[in-house]
Amino acid sequence: MATKIRIDLRKLYDSKEEDQREEENLYEEDYQCEEEEEDLYDEEDQCEKNQCKEDQSDKDYQNEEEDQCKEDQSDKDYQNEEEEDLSEEEDQCDEDYQCEEENQSEREDNSEE
Questions:
Q1: CA 60, 64, 66, 70 torsion: positive or negative?
Q2: What CA–CA distance (Å, rounded) separates 69 from 75?
Q3: What CA–CA distance (Å, rounded) separates 69 from 65?
Q4: What is the C-alpha separation between 15 and 7, in angstroms, rounded?
Q5: Which stretches of the chain are DSSP H helices?
Q6: Distance (Å, rounded) from C-alpha 40 to C-alpha 10?
Q7: pLDDT tens track for 23-45
Q8: What sign for the dihedral angle of Cα 94, 99, 102, 108?
Q9: Residue 33 and residue 109: Cα distance in Å, rounded?
Q10: Alpha-carbon dihedral sign for residues 19, 23, 26, 32
Q11: Is this model's pTM higher than 0.85 or not?
Q12: Vertex 90: Cα angle to 89 and 93 (nearest 5)
């Protein structure tokens, strides 16, 4: 009878040790899951930061493109103004030349008379 009690106690003790090991394993698994979850949150945060940086970079690029377009338009406007001024000067020169020709012709006519 004492042997049976010792065997039963031994089985109970072994069962208790096994339960403790399983509980420790569960705690370890839980800890690992928490670590993995934190890693996933960190990774997600990093992805969001990277996306924000990428979005900002895209926005910066778009702003640069718009600035370049405005600058090109401004250059084109300036060039058009310059061409317009030159055209007006040419017209004025032509007009002055024509007037000079007429004056010369009148002088010649007057000198013949």
A1: positive
A2: 10
A3: 6
A4: 12
A5: 2-112
A6: 44
A7: 999 999 999 999 999 999 999 99
A8: negative
A9: 112
A10: negative
A11: no
A12: 85
Alpha-carbon distances, residue 9 vs 6, 15, 102 (angstroms): 5, 10, 137
Identity of the residue numbered 33: C
Give the whole-angstrom CA distance, residue 95 versus residue 89. Answer: 10
pLDDT of residue 96: 82
How far apart are the C-alpha atoms of 12 and 61, rounded to whole Å?
A: 72
Tokens of residue 24, six digits: 């420790």
Using the Cα atoms of residue 64, residue 68, residue 69 and residue 71 in order, give the sign of their dihedral. Answer: positive
